[in-house]
Amino acid sequence: MLNSVLIVAAGRGHRLGGEIPKQFLPVGGICSLRRAVDAFLALDAIDLLRVVIHPDDQALCEAALAGIDDRRLLAPVHGGATRAQSVRLGLESFRDTGTGKILIHDAARPFIPAGVIEAVLSALDQAEGAFAALPVVDALWNADGDHALAPVSRDGLWRAQTPQGFDFDAILAAHRGHDGEAHDDVAVARAAGMDVRIVQGAEANFKITTAADLERAQAELMRLENDRRAD
């Protein structure tokens, strides 16, 4: 059975301003989507990869992925009106490919470490689902408007990241049976009763959503380049 990747790039969020969706904005001259695709294709454990995009972003996607000569990269598919619909359509496109494990990743997370990808794949040997996450470390407060009410325990709380990996047949069935939107694919899996494990994520694996995130991405890129020079 094959290990496949679905990168979700169908969002239309413009919180960064301008007309270009965040996953296509350049980070050091290379957009977030391309960096994410390159990170997965760098691993021999990945057998197939496909991107799900908004129908209006075909040209942006073609430009982002230009020059990749890798048989594992499949043609993109178009998503739906919501993220959940886009993921389901992306999953449907992997039917009859022999996919056993599927990793679902946000295109706006460009700096996914290889070790995190491998850890999620490995966890799928023992569970129907697994995802990268970080424990909550900041103090949490319940509030009424801007009035603090009471602290909230951090025990057992995690910040979810992607990739979120699953047994392919199980998550496809879960999405087919899901009605409405969901926070992420783990929510869909748990609603269907799937056993999902948590693996340690990485601080570098943040999602670019705001202008501040884009600045952080530029800083992270400089750090990575400095580390390479040091090696």
Biggest β-sheet strands, sense, barrel? 7 strands, mixed
The CATH superfamily label reads Spore Coat Polysaccharide Biosynthesis Protein SpsA, Chain A
- Domain count: the total is 1
Low-pLDDT stretches are: none
Which structural category do the helix and sheet elements fall into?
Answer: alpha/beta
**Beta fraction of the residues?**
25-35%
Distance between the termini: 36 Å
Question: What is the typical, i.e. mean, pLDDT?
Answer: 94
Per DSSP, the total helix count is 7
Rg of Cα set: 18 Å
Top-tier CATH class: Alpha Beta
- Strand order in the sheet with the most strands: 5-4-1-6-10-7-11
List the secondary-structure elements in sequence, H or E: EEEHEHEHEHEEEEHHEH
CATH topology: Spore Coat Polysaccharide Biosynthesis Protein SpsA, Chain A
What is the CATH architecture descriptor?
A: Alpha-Beta Complex
Using the alpha-carbon principal axes, give the shape. Answer: globular
Number of strand segments: 11
How would you characterize the overall build of this protein?
The chain is α/β, with parallel strands linked by helices and 231 residues long. The protein has one domain (2-230): Spore Coat Polysaccharide Biosynthesis Protein SpsA, Chain A, CATH 3.90.550. The chain is 32% helix and 26% strand. The chain contains seven helices and eleven strands. The protein has helices at 32-41, 58-64, 83-92, 114-123, 168-176, 185-191, 211-230, and strands at residues 2-9, 26-27, 30-31, 48-53, 77-78, 99-106, 129-135, 140-144, 147-152, 158-167, 196-200. The strands form three sheets. A seven-stranded mixed sheet has the order 5-4-1-6-10-7-11, with helices on both faces. A two-stranded antiparallel ribbon has the order 2-3. A two-stranded antiparallel sheet has the order 8-9. Helix 2 (58-64) links the parallel strand 4 and strand 5 (77-78). Helix 3 (83-92) packs across helix 5 and helix 5 crosses helix 6. The mean pLDDT is 94.
